[in-house]
Amino acid sequence: MLLECNQETYAVLTEQARVPVGRVLLELPAGMLSDDAGDFVGTAAQEVEEEIGIHIKSSDLVNLTDFLHPSTGQQIFPSPGGCDEGIKLMLYRCHVKQEVIDSLKGKQTGLREDGEFIKVHVVPYKSLWRSTTDAKALAAISLYEMGKREGLLEECPNISD
Question: Keywords of this protein's UniProt record, alphabetized (predicted)?
Fold first, then answer.
């Protein structure tokens, strides 16, 4: 999720405890498919709403992994030596007012009934690569930057409240 405000681009991250690595991590909003329909885009929009508290339309998401060659299966395998998990990376971008940025900083979200205790962080995009150890975020930066360089991304949409 990239938000543009006052000529600055910001990335929105979540802070969550991750038991397998024994740490609290800053990472991209993410979730797992809850059905066999394979609706990655709908799941991504739902996760943004649950973890960030912003309602977005599925049609506003860009599947960055679609930029990959079809022979790759257009998904990323974060740890292919250890598991068969394949992921798709979605991009949401829009211009927002400063009030939106301010309202997100430190916001507490997550589905408590599912044991989610999430804190939202807003960081300047230019320092995102140094702000997280999340492989999803680092791969998304690469795909986003290459997509921009190759002219595969449209202009950022207008202001959203």
Answer: Hydrolase
